[in-house]
Specification:
It is built from eight helices and 23 strands. By secondary structure, it is of the alpha+beta class. It has three domains: 70 residues, Leucine-rich Repeat Variant; 119 residues, Immunoglobulin-like (Sandwich), CATH 2.60.40; 114 residues, Immunoglobulin-like (Sandwich). Strands 9, 10, 11, 13 and 23 form a five-stranded antiparallel beta sheet that branches. The protein has a five-stranded antiparallel beta sheet with strand order 15-16-17-21-20. The protein has a four-stranded antiparallel beta sheet with strand order 6-7-8-12. Helix 5 packs antiparallel against helix 6. The longest helix has 22 residues. The protein is globular and about 75 Å long. The two termini are 47 Å apart.
Length: 429
């Protein structure tokens, strides 16, 4: 029997919030009305109470129409900004796991980690002809970060992860090959990331002895609930030290290595080239660095209800956090409607560069008069700048769009983070 303390983790890839309880909706409405009180103390108290309710009420605040009072609107803006910042911080913080189990089946333990963190775990042993034994697990963990908790369980079970399963937003696990070290001793953990040195190779060009390089490969993994937009290693932040405190220079230390972030994987590889290392140096005693990461913030749903008005006048916009969605036009061509829209960020931080495909995965659909989804039949890119990207979505609909709602789901902020890390005692060839 598992005994747990459930930890609620904000999942970037899940809907922004569960449907609110009626009592919570009533309380939010009451506090919004109190923001317009004649007494300053009452207005301040209402603003504090809304913030104390936490990011879960953001969707309810989106239902509040613009108020006639400029002060009420200003206070609502401050509440939204505060709660959005809290949501982003929670979403990019490591998920925590609490377990108190003795001889519990592996499958139950993995499901409990999934439940507490929002990170999907898939057992792939049968795909490799391995026996999927439900080995007993004993663990006493109190608020352990996801990767430490999972590695501790996998080490007990004699298992490891498999990075090329093709499972999106999931950690795939398989049996560990004989001779592989325990996962918990091979990696360093920092926030939502797990970093491991996986390979060191020394290459000598026999035609040109000057082309001698030592290359260190790092594997950077992240919690599956996240979907990093970009991950890079500025070489100027990398420091390698031998056992005698001698610094080992990095080749091309003024550059930056950008990892290939693939939506079908939860890891990326960073190869770091070193200047030739003397054979007398047996290991890298310490490797220190700082990653630069772009993460999507809280996913918001932008809804545009009066499509007939947009069809007639065009250019209706809605803003949440640092994202603005503009529906430029709605045009009909035969049985197909074109909905042309632009997504703009206050600061996109290179997240919209053309080689990054994350924005193509944003959800765009219609809701018919009965609330049923109508998926788009395709799209084309119509605009691409540093802070904007535009699409023309096609919908096949019989009749008029007057009672339909256009919905667009996107992260409402791009979060820039610097991730310091340190690895120790990396053997050299």
């Amino acid at each position: 029997m598992l005994t747990t303390a459930t930890i609620v983790a904000v999942c970037l890839l899940a809907p922004a919030a569960d449907p609110a309880a009626p009592a919570q909706r009533i309380q939010v409405g009451k506090l919004v009305r109190q923001l317009g009180s004649d007494q300053l103390a009452q207005r301040d108290a209402a603003q504090r109470s809304l913030i104390e309710m936490g990011p879960a009420i953001l969707d309810l605040l989106d239902e509040v129409p613009p108020q006639s009072s400029a002060e009420v609107n200003a206070r609502l803006t401050r509440v939204r900004e505060t709660l959005t910042a809290q949501a982003v911080e929670a979403a990019t913080a490591p998920s925590r796991v609490t377990l108190d189990v003795r001889d519990a089946p592996l499958s139950e333990v993995l499901r409990e980690i999934e439940k507490q963190t929002g990170n999907r775990i898939v057992d792939k042993r049968s795909d490799f002809g391995q026996k999927a034994e439900d080995v007993p697990i004993t663990a006493a963990l109190e608020g352990a970060p996801y990767w430490q908790a999972l590695d501790a369980v996998l080490d007990q079970a004699g298992m490891t992860t498999y990075e090329y399963s093709g499972e999106k937003n999931a950690t795939a696990v398989i049996g560990r090959q004989q001779g592989m070290p325990p996962r918990s001793k091979a990696a360093t953990y920092t926030g939502v990331f797990r970093i491991e040195a996986t390979q060191v190779e020394a290459i000598r060009d026999l035609r040109n002895p000057a082309n001698h390089v030592t290359r260190l490969h790092l594997e950077v993994g992240w919690e599956p609930r996240l979907a990093p937009i970009a991950l890079a290693q500025p070489l100027a932040t990398v420091e390698l030290v031998a056992a005698d405190e001698t610094k080992l220079p990095v080749a091309g230390e003024s550059g930056t290595i950008e990892a290939d972030v693939n939506s079908a994987s939860v890891v990326a590889e960073l190869p770091i080239a070193l200047e030739p290392v003397a054979r007398s140096v047996e290991k890298i005693a310490a490797l220190r660095g700082e990653l630069e990461v772009l993460l999507p913030g809280r996913v918001e749903t932008f809804q545009f209800r009066d499509l007939a008005k947009i069809k007639a006048q065009g250019n209706v916009e809605s803003k949440k956090a640092s994202a603005t969605v503009i529906v430029q036009s709605v045009d009909k061509n035969g049985d197909v409607y074109d909905v042309r829209m632009v997504l703009r960020f206050d600061q996109a931080a290179n997240a919209l560069e053309s080689h990054r495909g994350w924005v193509l995965g944003n959800d765009a659909y219609l809701l018919d008069p009965n609330g049923a989804r109508v998926e788009n039949a395709g799209y084309e890119t119509i605009r691409q700048t540093a802070n904007e990207v535009g699409f023309a979505y096609k919908f096949v609909v019989d009749g008029d769009l007057a009672d339909y709602v256009f919905c667009y789901r996107t992260p409402a902020a791009i979060v820039q983070k610097k991730i310091p890390y340190e690895l120790r005692d990396i053997p050299l060839p």
